[in-house]
Amino acid sequence: MKNWLAIRPPLPASRPDRRSVPIVLILAGLSLVAIVVNVGQGEYPIEIFDLVQTLLGIDTGNPDLPFVIQTLRLPRTLVAFLVGVALAISGAIFQGLTRNPLADPGIIGINAGASLAAVTTIVLFPDAPVATLPIAAFVGALFMAALIYSLAGTGQNSPMLLILLGIGLSAIATACTSLMISLGSIYQVSQALVWLAGSVYGRTWEDLFALLPWTMVGTALALGLTRELNILNLGDEIATGLGSRVNWQRAQLVIVAVALAGSAVATAGAIGFVGLIAPHIARQLVGGNYRQILPVTALIGGILVTIADTIGRTIFAPIELPCGVVIAAIGAPFFLYLLIQNRYRQC
């Protein structure tokens, strides 16, 4: 793997790099394949032809297919894909802002802050509508981000400082989350524990419509701020010399990243490592310009979570593994590899 920290990204060009276009098209095709496979696989396998006919409203002669596809599987699959998109873009933004390859919403504690706020809402306000969870998670994630950044700055003096602070504050938030769970009813406890494992089980169209505006607006804002992210990635001194309002631009990007991570955590629970893995793969494919990195990262993140959900539903069927567990099995070794690599770089 290339040492991307040693490569200063170029200032964004006026037009997208043509080399990234075929990669985006290929990943878009793979995304569609992952979604179709996820919807078609399970205890009740569905042939691709029947799946397409049902989605188009054509009668297949099987009255069970519309319910299985449109009510049970399709909203769950789309939620999984959008959660992956949101977490991946959030991770890419944090890595760009801190110039730290280990930065990830889950690792630096953003997800833990969102989880605490969401679980608190579940326990204290059980009758609250689904749409309130992303708002609560956003507030919790924003508070955690502000706390980490106030203690560590941007992490420029020591890239490991941000990670260590995030791990410590994440442990505190996790302990508070456990306390809130102990105060809840049996139903709330079981709901919170499944949710904390990182799962899209039982997600409905209501969950999808609650997540969709956060992901769409957050993604659009992130893509619109790629020039600022490229400049900030050069360092504060250079960015200031280029006439950038560093603090204002950083605040904008942090709010967008927190909103994306918070809404994803509120919908699917604490799914980690997506924001760590996806940006690294994207850099290997398209280089260091965030104008190309963010779209590629978004598609890779969506594919990762969708595939993880498919594996979790099928590998030990009829028992389901939360997709967060499947991703953690891949992401934990990847994180250790990057941690060791970064340790030698700091020496």
From TrEMBL:
SUPFAM superfamilies: ABC transporter involved in vitamin B12 uptake, BtuC
Keyword match Transmembrane helix: yes
InterPro entries on file: ABC_BtuC-like, ABC_transptr_permease_BtuC
Gene3D superfamilies registered for this protein in UniProt: ABC transporter involved in vitamin B12 uptake, BtuC
Entry's localization field: Cell membrane
Membrane topology: Multi-pass membrane protein
Keywords attached to this entry: Cell membrane, Membrane, Transmembrane, Transmembrane helix, Transport
GO CC terms, sorted: plasma membrane
GO BP terms, alphabetized: siderophore-iron import into cell
Membrane-spanning residues: 21-40, 74-94, 106-125, 131-149, 161-188, 253-281, 293-312, 319-340
CDD domains tied to this protein: TM_ABC_iron-siderophores_like
GO function terms (MF aspect): transmembrane transporter activity
Pfam families in the record: FecCD (PF01032)
Protein's UniProt keywords contain Lipid metabolism: no
Main location: membrane
Domain of life: Bacteria
Similarity field: Belongs to the binding-protein-dependent transport system permease family. FecCD subfamily.
PANTHER family xref list: FERRIC ENTEROBACTIN TRANSPORT SYSTEM PERMEASE PROTEIN (PTHR30472), FERRIC ENTEROBACTIN TRANSPORT SYSTEM PERMEASE PROTEIN FEPG (PTHR30472:SF24)
Name of the featured protein: Iron ABC transporter permease
